[in-house]
Write a sequence for this structure.
């Protein structure tokens, strides 16, 4: 083969980005409630319609809140564990005067400590766009 018949070399691009160059989305958070009491939905609600009209699924990252508008994104942080979960308000409740938020079982499992009594303390922050 002559040099003119050789295949052109393909450009090799570096797909690994440096840690400092990765763009992280900036969240604007507003503290809504510190040390709020959170509980979780029972499995009997799976498949039922929520107050917003969508079907409830205990494996989704959603929650119920009495006052916040549907579609509001929340950052929920376990007070003891410091674990974080992001959820969307899709339902009304909880209907217990000492509770502030009802999480799906999947969301609750992400922030709960190893031992708990069915409800935990969480910090609730509203994610602003």
């Amino acid at each position: 083969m002559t040099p003119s018949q050789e295949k052109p070399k393909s450009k090799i691009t570096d797909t690994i980005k440096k840690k400092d160059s990765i763009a992280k989305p900036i969240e604007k958070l507003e503290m809504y409630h510190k040390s709020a009491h959170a509980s979780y939905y029972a499995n009997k609600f799976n498949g039922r319609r929520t107050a917003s009209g969508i079907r409830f699924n205990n494996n989704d990252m959603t929650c119920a809140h009495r006052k916040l508008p549907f579609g509001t994104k929340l950052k929920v942080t376990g007070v003891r564990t410091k674990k974080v979960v992001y959820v969307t308000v899709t339902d009304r409740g909880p209907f217990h005067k000492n509770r502030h938020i009802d999480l799906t079982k999947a969301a609750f499992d992400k922030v709960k400590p190893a031992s708990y009594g069915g409800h935990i303390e969480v910090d609730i922050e509203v994610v602003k766009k």
